[in-house]
Amino acid sequence: MKLFKSITLIVFVASALFAQSGTRLVGFDAKSLGRGGTSIGVFDTPELMMSNPAGLSFVNQSMLNVDISMMYPSLHFQNKLNNVDGDDNIFPLPSASYLRSCDCSDFTWGVGFFTSGGMGADYMLNHALYGTTKQEYHSKLASMQGGFSAAYKFNEHFSIGASLHMVYSMLEFSMPFSLSPFAMQGVAMPGMTFGQMFAAAPPQGFGYDEVTASAKMVELSAIGFNGKIGVAYKVDNKLSFGFSYTMPTSLTYTGGKATMDMTAQLGDAFGKAVMGAMMQGMTQAQAQTYVSGMFTQLGIDMSKGVVANYDLDVELTFPSSIGFGVSYKATDCLLLAADVEYLNWESAFDKMTLKLKNGNNANINKMMGNAGTFDIEFPMNWENSLMIKIGGEYLATKELTLRLGYAYNSNPVPQSTIFPIFPAVVENHVMAGASYKVSNPITINAAFEMALNNSVTASNPSLIANEFDGSTSELSTWFMHIGMSYAF
């Protein structure tokens, strides 16, 4: 168990964040990625632990695989106040696996650890509430999984298999966080909540249709379990089929810390109240004194500020998927393959539940109408997506294999909830790769992958915040994949 934890920590710390087809990678090793990520119906790599464990029965040799991918994302965001690129980042994405196959048994097994998915971004952006002070917009959602896979071959044509994986994930984000003013259920005066006061038009209220706090949520991590089952059918030495199902993974991120800072929002409200008092004939000094007294009568002690620290848990589910794959060896030198996968994002990323506890600021507790414990349902409303992958490989010489591939994944992020730090919108991927057999047991695999730029314009209004109304988020990425396979 100590060894497992150590390996998990080393791999995960190295693997940071990235954005691909939704939050999931197209493929999981350099060999399959060179041919478009096709692997469900191609039985030649330990990556089958992630795509179709039944296919392990037909690999026919024990092997050790080690892979590392380098990702280079390019992001852009534009709204009424910004037209900027995201930070340039480079992220390493490692994986390692071992497959044990023996002619003496119909049972094949393997263990592996794979960087499986994530998303994230970094910006410094202007926000209307904060004037000329740029705000941090940061996200990181990363996950890896690993564990045991096994397959049983009933005969030379048919096999079934399963994987049981532990999932480790990490989450954090920082940004101005906006809510409907009616989330503030604390009583300001008889017959009126703070939410009603902030929403009401002047002079009865402040006229806000949202209230905003600088939010920072860090140190969130989760451990869960994921299962996969598969079926492999090899018609003959030329034609193969595969089917796989991946279970949904429900994760509860715990141990997090959250800071909510409403200083800018309350300062704006204070300023509006002062201007209103001055319009009634008061001097600025008189108006400030009057408004301070008014806030005191509402139970808000301005000397305590409006910055609160919370303990934080987050609930999030990763989707189930169904996949089908086929491969056909057209000639002794040419292999063609295709995969189709359906990802059920709609039942997974419909929302993210933020559970804040032990808030330590009396002013915010007063306005929210609680003792520092409450839940926020963050809308996501992702849509189901279809991933189509096609590719082929050509045996140029006994040592050299060349590959080409293409993958399409329909964008699952709707216009109503797109915003710049959850930018998982790329759809079209083109790949090329090669393998070179250095010696009888050692093969080097390499691939280049480019996820072409995709731009999504947010709806107006946005469900996330007013600042994203009609905004545009763009993402493109490119990867270098390299791996080594050692056959036993």
Low-confidence runs: 1-22
CATH topology: Porin
CATH superfamily: Outer membrane protein transport protein (OMPP1/FadL/TodX)
Count the domains: 1
Structural class: mainly beta
DSSP strand content: over 45%
What are the secondary-structure elements, in order, as H or E? HHHEEEEEEEEHEEEHHEEEEHEEEEEE
What gap, in angstroms, lies between the N and C termini? 26 Å
Q: What oligomeric state best describes the polypeptide chains here? A: single chain
> What is the count of DSSP helices, taking H or I runs of 4+ residues?
7
Helix content: 10-25%
Shape: elongated
> How would a crystallographer describe the biggest sheet?
14 strands, antiparallel, barrel
CATH C-level category: Mainly Beta
Q: How does CATH name the architecture? A: Beta Barrel
What would you say this structure looks like, in words?
The structure is a single chain. The radius of gyration is 27 Å and the shape is elongated. A hairpin with a 6-residue loop joins strand 3 (91-100) and strand 4 (107-125). The chain has helices at 2-15, 30-33, 48-51, 194-199, 263-279, 284-297, 362-368, and strands spanning 63-78, 83-85, 91-100, 107-125, 135-153, 158-179, 187-189, 192-193, 211-234, 239-246, 249-261, 307-318, 321-329, 334-343, 351-357, 374-379, 385-395, 400-409, 428-437, 442-457, 472-487. It has a single domain (2-262, 306-487), classed as Beta Barrel (Porin), CATH 2.40.160. The chain is built from 7 helices and 21 strands. It has a 14-stranded antiparallel β-barrel. A two-stranded antiparallel ribbon has the order 7-8. The two termini are 26 Å apart. It has 488 residues and is mainly beta.
